[in-house]
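Retro notes, structure queue

What went well: the backlog is down to a handful. What didn't: a couple of records were mislabeled last round, so from now on we paste the full input next to the output in the thread. Example, using 4-diphosphocytidyl-2-C-methyl-D-erythritol kinase from Aestuariispira insulae:
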Amino acid sequence: MKQERVTAVAPAKVNLYLHVTGRRDDGYHLLDSLVVFTEFGDRVTVSPAPDLTLSVGGPFAAAIPNGGDNLVLRAARALQQAAGVTAGAAIHLEKFIPVAAGVGGGSADAAAVLKTLMRLWELTLEQGRLEALALALGADVPVCLESRSAYMGGIGEDLTAAPDIPKLGILLANPGIGLSTPAVFKARTSSFSDNARLTPGELATRTDFINALSTRNNDLSEPAVSLVPEVGDLLVALGRTDHCLLARMSGSGATCFALYEDQAAAEKAAESLGNAWPDLWLQASNIR
Ligand SMILES: C[C@@](CO)(OP(=O)(O)O)[C@H](O)COP(=O)(O)OP(=O)(O)OC[C@H]1O[C@@H](n2ccc(N)nc2=O)[C@H](O)[C@@H]1O
Ligand SMILES: Nc1ncnc2c1ncn2[C@@H]1O[C@H](COP(=O)(O)OP(=O)(O)O)[C@@H](O)[C@H]1O
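Corresponding output:
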């Protein structure tokens, strides 16, 4: 039956650890990261229409381009071309994820629009072609297609599903300052790190998992703090919230996260942190 309207959540991405393990000749960096997704995210809706159009709503609508530069329209056009589609679509994006924030908002939107348009246009695209199309849109788009916990290698295209990870609540916190991904990679001064995938034993219990994560890093937080010192203050503040298990920056920042036993503890932490730091953007959720 022809789809009238297809909706999907575009979940925020979090790098629980991120090691920079090398650099390619073209300047892209090789990564080793455990990537997870939150229950919180943007929302993408596509409906039949003769042309491709985009409308954007939600709290961060004004922070993204609403024309052809928007990743959502770039993704839709790339899919149209790859599959030889002549139909259009009216795309509506509700933007709840902060922008240029290290939580993959644009990548999640691009992945969600690929998935929803494939259903709307009743397309089957070979998985390898879809993944190549996703990677051409951004290094984080392939992992967002699955939106499941995964180890990410290469520049983002080498994905391995992660075993089940213990249930955890998460608090996302953003100081309201955008950080450019290339600028953060460029500001790195330290040497390359090793790959550091977790062993099955390190995933056995929540305590084992948190201990294991504590021995890994986000190699981009040092350069991010050098560019935006507020990120360092935020990490200290998150680490001091009641029952915080781990506080760290995600991706190239500036969003930081803290892990808790459940969402209720994350919500309590959000309340106390919000009182102390009123212009902070805060969102409690669970890891999916
Ligand atoms: C750092 C990460 C970690 O998950 O997340 P974010 O901070 O963006 O959320 C990602 O690798 C980002 O992915 P994404 O944001 O899609 O990157 P792209 O648009 O492809 O690349 C933007 C720029 O970042 C740098 N870049 C990106 C990925 C990578 N593996 N090495 C790099 O050096 C390059 O300078 C590139 O020109
Ligand atoms: N739909 C979109 N959502 C977010 N950012 C977008 C979108 N389309 C284009 N952009 C641009 O992509 C850049 C990266 O944004 P984002 O994906 O939020 O960053 P990050 O990967 O660091 O979380 C920003 O400069 C933004 O203007």
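Agreed that this is the format going forward. Reviewer comment attached to the example: The chain has two domains: 6-160, 163-286.
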